[in-house]
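Hey, can you fold this one?
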Amino acid sequence: MANPSIESVARTVVRCERCVRLLTYCRGVAAHKVARFRAQEYWGRPVPGFGDSRARLLVVGLAPAAHGGNRTGRMFTGDSSGDWLYEALHRYGFANQPQSVARDDGLKLTDCYITAAARCAPPGNRPLPVELDRCRPYLEAELALLRRVRVVVTLGGIAHKTYLLASEWWKRLSPADRPPFSHGAKHRLPSGVWLISSYHPSRQNTNTGRLTRTMWHAVFAEARQLIDHRR
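Sure. Predicted structure:
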């Protein structure tokens, strides 16, 4: 990719056809839809990252939701996980509004960029290891361009490991020194970047109380504090 930019990476992501299983699933969901979104046109393609190219906060999720990002074409937009994420980002000064329902809803992120381990909605919310491997170069490209990032929040164990692989800390650090995934855990990488891990705000976690609003807000309050401390 000559003279890469965040925008050129996004365009490459949208055109990606590396994973036939995922593309078939995304297009199938877009064709058949669900009753409540029957009148809407689905995106049905890989979903690019979203946000401020000068961000100091990077949020890494798992993958677009079948009737969320795969429908709207924007990360964490149009589903309950997005409701949790953007409410917290707005609360702590990273978003201009607390909700995200469509690509043209006026949402803007400040000092924050959102991406994911996989860019296509996977069946059962479970991308295969080979699919994560094929998708990881896009995260690697974003990391190379997002040079001001100081805090990374990973949502779930897969996102956590994928970030460590894409940033090469998985290879550079010994197994004993690799930051383990644990909700609310905070680790300072040798580069000076802070890594905070969190449970994913999926219904499976939020409806069962595994992840509460208090726990969730604490993650972004910590991110805000770490970023402000470095000003």
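The first helix runs from residue 6 to 15. Let me know if you want another pass with a different chain boundary.
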